[in-house]
Amino acid sequence: MDTSNSKFTIYILFSLLIIFVLYIASNIARNLPNGPPGLPIFGNIFDFRGSLLHVKLTEWSQQYGDVFAYKMGQSSVIVLNSPESFNDLFIKKGQKYSSRPRASNQATLITEGARIVNMQYGDLWREHRKIIHGFLGMQNAKIFLPYQEYESRRTLKHLLDEPDAFFQEVARYSGSVTFSMLMGCRFDRSDAFIPQQIGKKMQNFFTHIRPGAWLVDWIPILDYLPDALAPWRKQAVEIRRQIMPFYLVFYEQMKERVRNGTAPDCFVARVLQNEGTKLSETEYAHLIAELITAGTETTATTLQWFFKAAVLFPEQMKHAQKEIDRVVGRNRLPNWEDREKLPYLNAVINELHRWATATPLAFIHATSEADVYRGKSIPKGATVIPNVNAIHKNSQYYPEPDKFMPERFLDPRDPRSSPGASPGGQHFAFGVGRRECPGRHVADASLYIVMSRILWAFDITPKPNSPPPDGYSGAFPVFGPAVFQCAVKPRNEAAAQMIRERAEVDRPKEMEDSSIYDELLAKIQ
Ligand code: HEM
């Protein structure tokens, strides 16, 4: 090797050493919570290759404890993995921990800053949340009941006619409940076009707005490049163009019908008629997109997990069926009044949220002020991840976490309850604190009525030689089970007869059929 080459090598090694020392020193000076060591400049970016975020973070929680930090490029990410840290930070210090990450200009190009799910904590978020609460709050959620009641009977009929289509049918059910309320229209077929599209649009949307989806999210200096050298900006606008025209069809159509007096009585029409609502056109369109997506996908996914739980844990489902038969009898379907007499079924619903959490990381939070927690610094603007999955899968909080044990959610006075088997009878599937899911009461009622009736009417069993595979379908933040098959058979002929008799009666009011949108949607595909 000649001397100039060896001088160059020494120079490079020395520079790398300096960068490394500065990186370690800056981390020590920042006094972040401990966590996995990363690379200078890149942080832990390369640690996530080939693994799902919630799986990797749960692995790390076992190594680094209930509060740890890691680096994505220059940004700090704090991960909370225990009910105590959720309580201390999201609830007691909700003022500081209820924002969303600011890092992504890419996400802003896609959402136009108008989606509540990734809105900063502040006035605009409050305004959107107020409108949503008016629609979904505990009291208002009651106006959903007739739709849930009717659509759940339609689900029984569809399962009777096409038992293999249960994956699509639950998407139809939850989409139809949401659309009845939002748009005054419903879906009649399990393979209806709109619910399937909502699933696809949602995946495309979240894949590209989640923090870290783009390299520039983690290396913000790249954002100073002009448009000609930053093709990712054009890509973000293109993603918006793939998603928003679908939702704009519903918005524009309803606006027109409100104008000419032909709109059905529904939430979107009422919001558009309300002069007091202070949203811009863009915000309206995104609000509708948001509610359609959030209302449909999460509930549908939870119901897909329910079918999987039924296949894997037949004994627990038999217990629930026995309880339903005892309380309801075999001469009518379960109804709303039965709920308080069905503690085991309620425990099945809670355990379902725990065992297979549809949103395993809830949604990503960020700090709006700097803070100190357990002697460690949490910077202003840090990403904070509620790792619900790590709590739900931790045997310290839920012994034998892989088992489906509704007993952990029974009242401790119930002799069947397993003592100390859940922290305060709680799960965290809807998030906690100020960003907690505003749709949880609606979701809860949707799940109760359809699950109680499916268990009343059907036995769900494995198909010979096709056990459900492990793994997931979907993408951050909503994960369902990998597609599987099962047998869905009426428990007896009388149950099948009851399903047929009750399928069409007592329609809540004349709903439009979603096919009125088909022609408009076809134009934008
Ligand atoms: C089983 C069903 C559901 C699950 C598991 C679920 C779960 C969640 C979770 C984990 C969050 C994020 C909480 C956080 O940031 O900490 C959330 C937010 C949200 N959910 Fe749900 N959800 C469900 C149903 C619904 C329904 C039916 C609606 C509306 C019709 C809805 C509307 C929303 C909205 C608008 C937000 C954003 C709130 C904000 O950022 O302030 N969700 N949901």
UniProtKB/TrEMBL annotation:
InterPro entries per record: Cyt_P450, Cyt_P450_CS, Cyt_P450_E_grp-I, Cyt_P450_sf, Cytochrome_P450_fung
Cofactor: heme
Name this polypeptide is given: Cytochrome P450
Keyword Transmembrane carried by entry: yes
Pfam family, one: p450
Organism: Rhizodiscina lignyota
Highest taxon of the lineage: Eukaryota
Region (Disordered): 408-429
Listed transmembrane segments: 7-25
Family: Belongs to the cytochrome P450 family.
